[in-house]
Every structure is written in structure tokens, then in C-alpha cells.
């Protein structure tokens, strides 16, 4: 059993957004069944009982309705703006920063909506579920420690290069030699953060244990869940500096890669963004929204608040 809480950001927050960006004829089917998919995913992390499954299903179903009625239009606009900026040669470093800020706003809007479910689910765990989750956390910590000891800096750089290359290839096709060289340089320049990640895993493992020991205290549990959803807020200064340095290096590399885009790659990216926009548009249920649902749209700091 894998600990549900440790994957809250990547899974519970990302599950709706990831399904929005699915392409092909299965996207609407997946999105409309997100409650069932969420239960199935969580059930693989924790052995849920019947009441817990119902809790997850009901909450995610409600948030899916809110999401498709109030958020997808912003995603459509964002995808189209990126496409137009690309075709008009308006993408530079500052523009990439703006895209990142807007995507962070999308994530924050989901985080606030799903946090109550995480609190309710954590409060419902029994002692056996908690014990198993903590044991799995210990295993993951040990696995990362072994991986750090076994891998050389060169191997980490190769992995970074290959991972980014795969993502870019899905978007724009095969990279040309100049793009490959720039990507290799980026992968070699990034500062290592694995030791920081290990320290943070140990820190959060202990903090999660203390939170679950006091899971009958909903006020304390809510505070800890909110902190867990924003882990960067407690990063030590060296970790923050390394991440800021890596962010700057990545922005520089992406800016250079955009400048190296060839016409055929440009057409491929534009077509990809257009397909994504069409997929998102088909998922929208804006016309089906109730007044109560629409009234729950986040205010300042949520989706759609960034001005261009």
C-alpha cells in the first residue's frame, strides 16, 4: 500500500488537470468518469473501506462539476494564447515566466477545492492504514537514498536530458542537432537537488506521522494538509536557492529552444495546441452549471486573474 497523502499534489490535484489535457476520443469518457478513476487510484494507495470510497467519489464528482463549468474556459484561452504567441514570435523569457505563473494559478484553484477531501480522508484512516502508509514512506526514503548512492552526476544528467527530450518530442517532433546540444548543456548545468529531496522526504515523513497521530484534531489536521500542499514554503534556504537557479537555467534553455524551432516544428506545436484546445472545449459543461456552483468560483489569486 502506498501513502495517499504523499501524492496529494501530483495525483489528487493533478488528476483533473491531467485528464483535461488528454487527447483523442477517450478524453471525454475519462473526464466524465474522473470520480471513479480517482477512487480507483486512491484505492491503490490505501486500502479504502466502503465509506472512504464513497467519500472520495462524492467529493471528486462535485469538484469535477465545478471544474468543467468554471475552469475549462480559462484553459481554452490559455492554450490559444500560447499558440498565437508562438506563431507571432512573441515568446521570450518573460512570457515563459508568465505562462508558469498562470499554470500555478490553475493548480492553486484545484488545491483549495480538494484540500477538504484530503482532510476528511486523513481523519478517517484507521491505525493499520496509518502504520502501512508510514512504512511505505520509509521504503521510499530508503529507495531514494540507495538511488543517490548508486548514480553518478553524469547518469543524473543523462536522465534529465532523456526525460525532457521525450516531452519535447511529443510536442514538436524530433529535435535538430542544435536543439539537442542546447538540451544536453541544460542537463549538465542543473544543480543537484537529490540530497535536498531526501532531507525533505524525511522531514515530511515525520511531520505526516505527527499529523496522523492527531487526526482527530481537525483544525490541526487541516493546517498540516494545507502545508503539505505547499511544501516549497518550508524548503531550507540552500534548497530554495538550488531550485531558483535550476528554474532560471530551465527558462534560459527553453527560450533558446523556442528560438531554434524550425517551421515544421512550429506547425506541429500549433496543431498540437489546437487539438488540446478542442479537447478541452468538448469537455466543458458550462451551460449545465447551477448558480450555486458558479458562485463558488475562486476570487483573487485563482484562475483567470492574470492580466496580459
What would your notes on this structure say?
This protein is mainly α. Helix content is 77%, strand content 0%. It is built from 14 helices and no strands. It has helices at residues 8-20, 27-32, 34-45, 50-70, 72-87, 93-124, 127-150, 153-172, 177-189, 194-213, 218-228, 237-259, 263-283, 291-294. The longest helix is centred in the middle third of the chain and has 32 residues, at 93-124. The termini are far apart. Residues 1-26 and 297-307 have low confidence and may be disordered.
Give a nutshell description of this structure.
The chain is mainly alpha-helical and 308 residues long. The protein has helices spanning 8-20, 27-32, 34-45, 50-70, 72-87, 93-124, 127-150, 153-172, 177-189, 194-213, 218-228, 237-259, 263-283, 291-294.
Write the layout of secondary structure elements.
Layout: H1 8-20, H2 27-32, H3 34-45, H4 50-70, H5 72-87, H6 93-124, H7 127-150, H8 153-172, H9 177-189, H10 194-213, H11 218-228, H12 237-259, H13 263-283, H14 291-294
Helix pairs in contact: 1-6, 3-4, 4-6, 5-13, 6-11, 7-10, 8-9, 9-12, 10-11
Q: How many angstroms does the end-to-end distance come to?
A: 45 Å
The biggest beta sheet, please?
Answer: none
Number of helices: 14
Q: Care to count the β-strands?
A: 0
Average pLDDT metric: 81
What's the shape? Answer: globular
- The value of Rg in angstroms is 21 Å
Amino acid at each position: 500500500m502506498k501513502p495517499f497523502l504523499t501524492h496529494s499534489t501530483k495525483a489528487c490535484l493533478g488528476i483533473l488537470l491531467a485528464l483535461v489535457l488528454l487527447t483523442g476520443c477517450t478524453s471525454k469518457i475519462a473526464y466524465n468518469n474522473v470520480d471513479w478513476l480517482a477512487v480507483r487510484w486512491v484505492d491503490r494507495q490505501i486500502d479504502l473501506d466502503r465509506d472512504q470510497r464513497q467519500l472520495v467519489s462524492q467529493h471528486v464528482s462535485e469538484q469535477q462539476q465545478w471544474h468543467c463549468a468554471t475552469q475549462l474556459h480559462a484553459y481554452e484561452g490559455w492554450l490559444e494564447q500560447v499558440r498565437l504567441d508562438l506563431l507571432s514570435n512573441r515568446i521570450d523569457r518573460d512570457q515563459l515566466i508568465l505562462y508558469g505563473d498562470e499554470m500555478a494559478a490553475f493548480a492553486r484553484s484545484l488545491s483549495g477545492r480538494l484540500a477538504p477531501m484530503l482532510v476528511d480522508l486523513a481523519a478517517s484512516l484507521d491505525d493499520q492504514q496509518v502504520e502501512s502508509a508510514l512504512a511505505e514512506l520509509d521504503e521510499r526514503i530508503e529507495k531514494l537514498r540507495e538511488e543517490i548512492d548508486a548514480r553518478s552526476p553524469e547518469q543524473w544528467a543523462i536522465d534529465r536530458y532523456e526525460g525532457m527530450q521525450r516531452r519535447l518530442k511529443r510536442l514538436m517532433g524530433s529535435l535538430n542537432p542544435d536543439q539537442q546540444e542546447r538540451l544536453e548543456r541544460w542537463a549538465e548545468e542543473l544543480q543537484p537537488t537529490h540530497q535536498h529531496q531526501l532531507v525533505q522526504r524525511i522531514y515530511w515523513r515525520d511531520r505526516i506521522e505527527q499529523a496522523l497521530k492527531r487526526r482527530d484534531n481537525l483544525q490541526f489536521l487541516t493546517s498540516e494538509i494545507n502545508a503539505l500542499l505547499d511544501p516549497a514554503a518550508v524548503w531550507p534556504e540552500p534548497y530554495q536557492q538550488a531550485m531558483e537557479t535550476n528554474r532560471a537555467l530551465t527558462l534560459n534553455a527553453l527560450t533558446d529552444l523556442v528560438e531554434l524551432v524550425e517551421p515544421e516544428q512550429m506547425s506541429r506545436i500549433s496543431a498540437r495546441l489546437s487539438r488540446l484546445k478542442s479537447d478541452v472545449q468538448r469537455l466543458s459543461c458550462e451551460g449545465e452549471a447551477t448558480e450555486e456552483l458558479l458562485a463558488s468560483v475562486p476570487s483573487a489569486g485563482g484562475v483567470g486573474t492574470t492580466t496580459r
